[in-house]
Known about the structure:
By secondary structure, this protein is of the alpha+beta class. It is built from four helices and five strands, in the order E-E-E-E-H-H-E-H-H. The protein has a five-stranded antiparallel sheet with strand order 2-1-5-3-4.
Amino acid sequence: MNLTGPDRYALTFDTAxxxxxxxxxxxxxxxxxxxxxxxxxxxxxxSRDNWPIYVGVTVQTMRTRLRLGFTATGxxxxxxxxxxxxxxxxxxxxxxxxPANGPLLPIDxxxxxxxxxxxxxxxxxxxxxxxxxxxxxxxxxxxxxxTEIMRHYQPASSQPDRIIP
Length: 165
């Protein structure tokens, strides 16, 4: 299994005004591209101060997934992203694990999601805004990919002056 990404996006939002989330890619354009704009299984990490606050998986486009997470009211039982109410900006990294034998299955994406969250927990605490997680039996590839993803973030212990609101 190989890994593409991260494709990094800056998110800005103000849910007190509206439930929109503005996106800016690394090239400065206001749109998603690559795997983020495709209906393929992908893992995404929302971070602040270079540390994950939420890890998710989806087969939807990121535009659709974010819209659902920002407009949810709780009427159907889903309350949306917790982080949208705590912050006004965040960084979104989109990762696409690619198996050697075909497309990524959603269960593989969920397994990697669980392994990433486990590694975050081992660094001190669960991701601050994580509200749901899927756990499946993992293999060496799932764990290797999760470790590779976490190499892109700095644990709080390496940032002693970091203040978490």
